[in-house]
Amino acid sequence: MRHQLDQADRNIARVAARQHGVVTVAQIRRAGLDKYAVRNRVKAGRLFALYRGVYVVGYQGASQETRWMAAVLACGDRAALSHGSAAALWRFLPSPAGAVDVVTSNRNGPALRHGIRLHRFTSLTPGEVTRRCGIPVTTPARTIADLAGTVPRWQWRRAVRQAEISGFALGSGFATDRTRSDVERDFLRLCRCHDIPPPEVNVRVGRWTVDFLWSRQRLAVETDSYRYHRGTVAFEDDHARDLDLRRRGFRVRRFTDLQIRGEAARVVADLREALGLAS
Asked: Is the pTM above the cut of 0.70?
């Protein structure tokens, strides 16, 4: 009997290792434990309930991935992480506070549960669900579509930009200007307003992603903000990037967000000179 229980615990541990430490009561039963054995392990602190029928094995502090996995498992076999939570898993947006977003195509799924925001879409197809880090999640394109109308427009645009920069195909309906930040978008708008030829946006040059590039004129432009370019690591990276670009034959210009927004005329004059445009 002792041997059977030890084997059951090993089976549960193997399942939990694939699921960020989480198991369902059905998986526990299949591993060989009955409801009484489950109850004893909960009392002993070896299993911790996150949701009804979903447990963490050997709780050491639930990670974000653990909470996401548990929420999906709590909503049944046809469930997947979605909306803001899916965007966070794909690294399109920061992880939202509050309930975990889960979508299911099951009309008659589990009842609402605290800490889970359940979305029911019978139109959800198997092709719109994949796995990332072992967690069932809506595909990048479906995630972006679900975000539309549920988050502020600026946040949706940011998610689309990040998805594009990460190399995910979203379809023509989600095309953007490929900028990754407000300061980049402001710079691109400045170029349009002053008839400066459009640059390539966020293009790879060697090991770096350059904000803006005019290949024929051999000009690279980096737009800096204090928020993302402060600290010694960012300082050294910026200088290493400039050195590599110069060795490849590119001239480099750097403009800050304050210059782009408050000294537009000077920025435009410098750009036009660097591009060999008539004043």
From this structure: no
